[in-house]
Each structure stands twice: as structure tokens, then as C-alpha cells.
Amino acid sequence: MLGRLKMSTEEALQEYDRFAHKIFSTSNRKIALSDRFKASTLQEAIEDLVARRGKGQLMSEPKEIASDCKTFVCAMPTRDLADPRRFRSYEVEGDRFKSCKIWEAARATSAAPTFFKAITIQDEAGIAEDFVDAAMGYNNPVEWLISEAGSAFNRSRKLGCVVSIGTGTKPKSMERSLSGAKNIARVLKLMKDITTDCERSHRAMEKLLQDFPGTYFRFNVPSAAEEVGLDEWKKLGSLKEMTSEYLEKAEQAEKVAEIGDMLATKAGKGLNVGHICYPSKAQVVASLRRAQPRGLSSPFFTGRGRVLQQMRQYFGSRNDHQTRAREFLVYGMGGSGKTQVALKFTEEMEEEDRFDLVFWIDATNEVTIKQSYKSVASTVFPDDPGDGKSMPRVLDWLSETVEDWLMVFDNCGAEPLTSSLPSRRKGNILYTSRYDLRARFTSDAVANINEMELDDAILLLLKTSSGWDSPEILGGHEAAKSVAVALGRLPLALDQAGAYMREKQCSFEDYFRLYWKQKDTILQNPLVKGAVAENLAVYATFDISFEALEERFKEQRHSQDGLAARGALQILSMICYYHNHNVLRETVGRAARTRHKTDRGIHYPLGNGDFSLEHLVEMEEGVWNPTNFDLGRDLLASYSLIKMDTHGEYISMHILLHSWARSKMEQLSKSTTGGSARALLFDSIPFSRAQKDFIYRRKLAPHVDACEEYVKLKNPDDLLESEYDGRLAVLKKEAGMFDAAEAHLESAIAKRREVYGADTVPIISAIEGLADVYEAQGRYADAADKLYEAIERRGGLPKDDQRNLTKLIRDKEDLAGVLILLDQREAATQLLEEVVTAREKMYGPNSMDSWGLIASRESLQRTRSRQSDRYLDKEDLEASIEILGHAERLCGSDSTAAMSARRSVALALAQAGRYREAEKLYMEIYEHFKELRGESDPYSYAIVHCLAGVLQDQGRHLEAETLFRSYFVFKYQTLGKRHFDTLGALIGLAMSFTHQGRFMESELLMQKVHDYLEAQFGSTHVLVEEAKSFLNQAARAHGMCQELLRRKCTEAALAASRAALGDLMPPDIDMIMAIMPQTFSGELPEWDFLTPRDIQRIQESIPDPVLFCSQLQEPLTEELEMEILEKWLKSKAEQLKLNDPETT
């Protein structure tokens, strides 16, 4: 109404009142649950309004009345609820719904499930789709708004503000008075995300624009959505009153006035479209599950029609006999455009919706392959931890998913990629390579591309040099033909030549002469000895552009063009020492902030003279000024020396240009630029453990690896190098490269000792980092040794240093945690007593305003109870409740301190046998951490583990298994199979198996757990003894009549769940089928706990699921027990080939 029909807000509200009365009236109701109101009435009302307004029938505005106000609405296709469609009032290239009518768009975005039936709309190709209201997943479409802005506007376009208007919040609380049924429902949906919270998108926007105050405004009337339903048209008056009261409040009135001033004066806050579109675009792409970043094909892409057609045919629709993966190879010389062909093909396939998913793997080397898989994992699994297990996780998922996917392995080497490839049982794989790998493929699955056809080469040159793209004029351009032939018809060289001519307004004749002169010079260069002719053409065109940049800088040194040329040369001298793909703009900004805080530019400048990188990291009033970088980046792109993503956040360089640029730097006696590039890169690595810093370090890994390979020069200052060792240790520890992290920290310690010669804070910090690396590997004894050393050394520092005292207390607390894992509980208790005493001295004995003090008291209480081998009693419960009261009063009910105290109360309740109360409390804590940190945060999963234990205590083993399994997989993926937490999680899973009568599985798992624990901790560790005891129980149960025991255990587990869940209990047959022989078919990770023989034994020990389940449907009688027993004995006798009745 507002955007397309040009109605005022008053007119729109009047029309809505009229609509609501007619559409939601009793006379328009249907006798149905799926769609309660007649959609035809809504359609008639909209069509009538469109006719009265006289603004045309199509959603897309006619050109004669088109305005600056671009409007779109979202609707969700019923077949793909993850990918909303957009109906626009403006033109966008590739828009599938240009002919959509206004009433169709309005119906689609109003088709709320249970209110109106879906609407069918055809796209431009005649393909019909059914649509429902986008509130099914995008009730707050602000991220799609940002995505649209990024497509419709230039990223430098000034942006005043973003205004988001909600439909009212539904209050969320963690009240303890929820009914049992409600709480059970929350447990059942615990691991399934089925909600769409508008405020989540709001918080994401707040975070995105936190550096630009006064540019994001959100209006949302509290409780409106709860008090007034969509069909409650008679309450519209109440809704208007609530809205008026909300807007009259001072805070909202001030925001409205601020927005009005901004619109009237067009005054901005320094924000432009580019500031917000890239992050939002990344989130949008993640929701589409497409691996990023992936480049775009060149807008000047020309020719290669035969190869593209061959690929279309090969990857066309499958016939019934094609069940294996389809693999295709594109190979040819460097610079021939293999990557561009692959990009063009994937873009065409996406436009045609040929594949459900498209992934891109940079196959340059092992590091880039792993990094690409991490990018894929972060999109397929949004909460992926980004550790060393990302690749196997993705490979497992690809082998199991029913979706038809395409994976591109770009720039493959000569060696096979066997360990990096998905299963050959399904999917589609496209390879590009400079190497002739034809022997591995069938003849119809290979395309060799080298130089272009002459006409295509001339056309590409015309496009890139002047924008001409008409084939009819080819014959009249003999000069262009001469250049194309001289450049060997190689796309990369043609692209660079055309860009140079466009920038310099150079004729084909002049460029032809310039090229031969430059080529003669290059031939005299010893670096090109033995180079193939095609590479020489690329080197010559690069040198021509490089010299043009140098000339521009020298001649226009003080103008903006000169500054752009300087920035371009500096960027080239930097990125040639990183990986050639996806260099991050963010790296320069992060390095600038680090160097500003440490005054590093004064003591350790990034080079001297024109190639100094200091110009790229300039700060203004404490904020990085990206002007020099952005000007240089855009100029390099205009010369086709680099490619960048839509928003300029990632830049890439062809590998031939990349290697030649590095040679050029060294040849020009600018080898020190390698050291500057290294320093800038390492300065950007953060120490912080915040999620955004973790994600950044993950992206940086290929560049660190490349830089360490290309640059051997280190800073002569050992202290600076030791700092870089510390930063690199953080990055490599997170990547699972523990040996490298350990080596960096040991190097840091050695360097710092050489400089300081005594115990200092930097030395102790590195020792603490080493302890952290050891603990991450499960090397608890080594971790304890380092923490003891750190504590001893900190004890020798000045006693009045408050910061050192805080660190000392934290080290003791960390050591206590490690000692508990080593079963040294008495020593752990003593340390925690010291911690509590120190914190009481620091904050006062009765103080409850310190989270550290609350946490240490809580830890001490738990450790004492474990040390005395007793359960928490009534006094412990009362003490925990008292601590909780203090924490909530002083720190807030949602504080970390309160949640930790609440967890202690839940533990005490469970040990007192008050399981349902404990379960309810754990659910409150889980929902808090899930909202605050996300489902896959370690805090959230720790509560999942606690909740599983409480369900187990109630005999609800079927439900407990689901949570134990989820917790185990998380720990396995993040910490590895031998880590203490992983093995502890496995014990819970094995216990769940036993209580369900799955004795063979439980015994095998517990045997492996026992062996690993014993090897790590020794035979006397309490966990080893517990594992041994449990193993003996499982073995005895397995040795008995397991069919009968299994039957009874399963009945007991079902009964417990049925009693707790009531009507919410799934059918018994579904519950049983979920835990039968399919258990190890892919739900758990691949590991070496179970050998193929182990799995065979498990499957042999389990009866036929259909037979067994059919028996379970009958009541358990003595006769049925005997029948099951006789069948089991008979099968075992046959299996063991026993023929003698007495022996049987």
C-alpha cells in the first residue's frame, strides 16, 4: 500500500480497517483447520483497491510513474522454506517474477498458514510455485532489506539510517511456574530449532551498526502480538491505543524526531551502503547454505560456448541407471580462463535451479582445501566450531544428504585428492587444473581449454577496452586482431590489456608497440628463463600495467589519482606474500587498530619510502581510515590485476600474476616488503576469544600459511617476534595444530627469557598459554606442571600488583580443575579454599557482588561433596538456594553468576531425588544460554549433558540417549575422541544403551573407554575404576539371556517416558525403531572405537527389528517370554552349530 500504491499511512490504515472487517468476519469463515478464512474475499478486496488507485496492475512499476521509492515484499515457497522469494516494484536483472501482479504479491505475503490457503504464482519461465506468508521464517526481513540495498545501490552510496517497524513482541520469561506439560514440550523440542524470533534479527542489526550510533531505529510495541491476534479485527482499536501510548513515551518520541530531522536535512552519520551490506549479505548467503566467499564470473565473459554446452549435457538430468557421482575435468594452461568457465557454469546452473547446493573448494593446497571445507561447514552447519573436523563432517553429510549438490575443486594439482573428495556414490564434482589429468576420466568428461577462438579473443578485447560488444564490427578492427594474436589469444592477458587501454585511453596500435617493447625487456630477465610463451604474454601485460601505476604515482603524487596509484602498488607488494585468493580488507583494519594501540608504527614501521605499508594503516581520531586501501583496491580492479567480491571485502589475484608480482618485488630490491606484509598480517591476529575474532582467525589461516612459506625474514626484535609467536599459537591451537601452537609458545618463552632473564609477566603468560594447549589435548599432567610453574613464578612478583594477584587466583582455579580431572581432589580442594580466601580478602568475606567469588565458592562446594564421596544433602541444597538468591539480587537473574548458582541448585535437587524440579531448572538455564550464546556453545551443551543425566535418573533412557548422543558428538567434534570430556560423554551414552538392554553396544563402547582412560590416567583413577565396574556389569548382562533382558529394559524405559510425557509420547513403534541396528549407520562420527568386526557383532546380537517390534505390540505374558527365549536359544544354537540337545 505505502510503497507500490503510493498511499499515505492514514489511507492505508483506513483501507486495512475496511479489509479486516470484511475478511475476518464470521461470514467469511470456513469449516477447516488448515485455512480458516476464504482467500477469495481477500483477493477481491485487493483487486478492488488496486483498480481504485489506478497505479497499474503489475507489482513492477511502469517506467512512466516509477519513483525513487523501491519496494519489495517477501513470501515463502512451500517447497523450500529456507529461501524466500522477493516481489519487487523495481527492475532487477534475473528477476523471476517481473510479471507478478500487485494482488498476487499481496496475497502471497498475506497467506499466513491456518488463516489462508497458499497461492500459486508463475515465474517468467512459466514455472509455478505455491507461496505462504514469509513469517514462516522471515517475520523480520531486515537482513533481506540490506541484501536488496547491496544489489540495487553502489556500496559508496550515502545511507542515513535503517528503520525497522515490528508487529509487537511476545514476551519471553523463565518463570518457574510453567506447567509440567509445557516443560515436557520444551524438553522434546530441545534440539530442534522451530522458532523464528523477530527480535533475533533486530539484535543482529544492532550489533552490526553498533559503531554508527544513531543510524538504526527499531519500533516494536511490547506485547501487541500476544494480545491481538491476526484475525482479531475487533481489537484494532486496542492495538492503536497501545501503539499511541508506546510512541508517546519520551524514548520513542526522541527517536521519531531524530529520524525526521535526518530525512529533512539529509544529514548522515558517515554510514554508507557498503558498511552494512557485506555482513548482511554473508548472513543471507549462509541461510542459503552456499559456501562463501566464491568469486563472480567476469562481466566481460566471452566465448567458451562449446565447453559450457558439453558440461550442461554431462551434468544434465540423471537417468535411472546413474547412481554414482559424476565427475568432469576442465584443464588447460595458466591464464586460459578455467576458473572463469567454472564460475560461469555454476552461475548458469543456479539460475536454472539445476542443483540444490553449489560448493566451491580452493584446491591449491592442503591448507586451502581445509579452509574451504570450513567455509562449507559454517554454511551447512551454522554453528560449526571450525575445528580440524570440519572436512570429515562435511564429507559425511554429503554422503548422506538427499539433495543434489555440485562441488567445484578449483586449481587442482597433479596429485590425487582422494582424502579430500566426497563419496563417489552420489553428487557432482567439477575439477579445474593446469595439469593434464585425462587418464582419470572418461572421454566425455574432459574439456581442454587453452587459447580462445580468434573472433572471441577480439570481442573480449573490444569489451574490456571500450565496452563494444557487437560481433558485426569485428572485421573492421585489424589493430585489435593484431593485439589479440600477439597476446596468444589468452583470456588473462587480453583482460589486462583491455583494462590498460581503457584506463589510459590507449589505442590498439600504441598498445601493440608497447607490448613488443615490454616483451623484449622481459626476455632478458633471468627470472623468465624456461617460461612458456603464454606465461610471457601474461608477465608482459602485467608489467605494462605495473609501470603505468608507477608513472601515475610519480606524475600525480599529491592528487587523489596519485594516492590511488600509491595504494595500488602498496597492496600489490602486500598481497603477493599472502594466499592469492580471498585476502581480507578486514586484515588491514585490524592491523591498523593494533598498531595504533601499541605505537608500533614509531618503533617498527612497515617499510620505508613509497612502498611503505604505513599509508594503508593510517588512523584518524582512533578509527582506521580505509581511503588509501579502497582507492588502491579499486584502481587495481580497474586494471584487472585483481578481482574482488561485490562489496570489496575480499580480493583475489590470478596465481600467475601473484607469483610474478612477488618476483617483481624481489627483483626491484624491495624484498623488505615481505617483512612488512608479514608484520601487518600478524598484527591483525587477535588474542580475544570472542566469536567474531575466532571466525576471523579461521579465515586467516591460509594467508598465515602462505606468508610463512614466502617470507623467511623475521623482525630482529625478539620481543616483537615473541608476541607474534603468541598470536600464532592462538590461531594454530584453534585449528587443531597443537604441535605448531606448542612450538610457538616454547619459542616465545625462550625469546622472552633471553631478553628479560628473569620471571616476568610476558614469560608467565606464555607458560599459561602452554598449559591451555596441553589441556586442550587432554595432556592434564603436563598442563598441571605448567600451571604449578606459573603459580610459583607469579608468587615471586610484587604482592601489591592487583592484576598479577587476579591472574594468580585464576591460575589456582584452573589448576584445581585440572587436578580434579587427575583425581587429585584433596589438592584441588585445598587450592579452591585458597582461592575463596583470597577473593574474600579482595572483596570482603560477606560480599556477594563478585562473580569470581560466587563461582569459586560454588566450585569448592561441589569439590568437597565429590571428595567425601557423598551426595549433596538438604543443607547443601539450602546453601545453594541462598547463593542463588544473593546472585540474583546483586548481579541480576539473567547474569552468568545467577545461572551458575542455579545450576548448583539443580544438581542439589537431582541428588535429593527431586528430578522433575531439577529438569525444569536445567531447561531454564539451557534456554538462557541458547538465547545468549547459541545452541552450539559449550555452555549450552554442558546443560544438555546435565539434563540428560536427570532424564536418565528418572529412567527415561530413550530421551536421555538423544541428549547424550548430541553432547557426545559435539565433544567429539570439538575436542577429539581421546579427550576427557569426550570419554565422559561416551560413558553416559553407554549407560543409556545398557538401560535399554543394548548390552553388546554398551560393552564394546565401555571397553574402549576403559582402555583409553587407563592409558591416560592409570588404573587407580576413579573414572577408570568406575568404567571397569560398569564394563563388568555390561559384560554380565550381555552374557545372560539378552533377548529377555532387552525386552524388559525396553519396556521399563518406555514406561518411564510414557509416564512423564503422557499424550506427548511418540508411538512406541517409532521410539523402538529409532534405536535398532541403524544406530551406527552414520549418526555417530566415524572413529576407530568400533572395528568392522565390532559392528558385525552388534548387528548379529540384535534380532530382526520388524519381528521384534511386532512382538512388542502384544502384552508381555509368561508364554510370550518363553517364546522369545526359545527363538533366541534356537538362533544361537544354529549360529554355534550345536546339534546335541543336552549341550543346547
UniProtKB/TrEMBL annotation:
Residues 329-434 form the NB-ARC domain. It comes from the Eukaryota. Residues 19-143 form the PNPLA domain. GO terms for biological process: arachidonate metabolic process; glycerolipid metabolic process; lipid catabolic process. Keywords: Hydrolase, Lipid degradation, Lipid metabolism. It comes from Thyridium curvatum. GO terms for cellular component: membrane. Signal peptide: none annotated. The keyword Metal-binding does not apply. Coiled coil: none annotated. This is Uncharacterized protein. The keyword Lipid metabolism applies. GO terms for molecular function: ADP binding; calcium-independent phospholipase A2 activity.
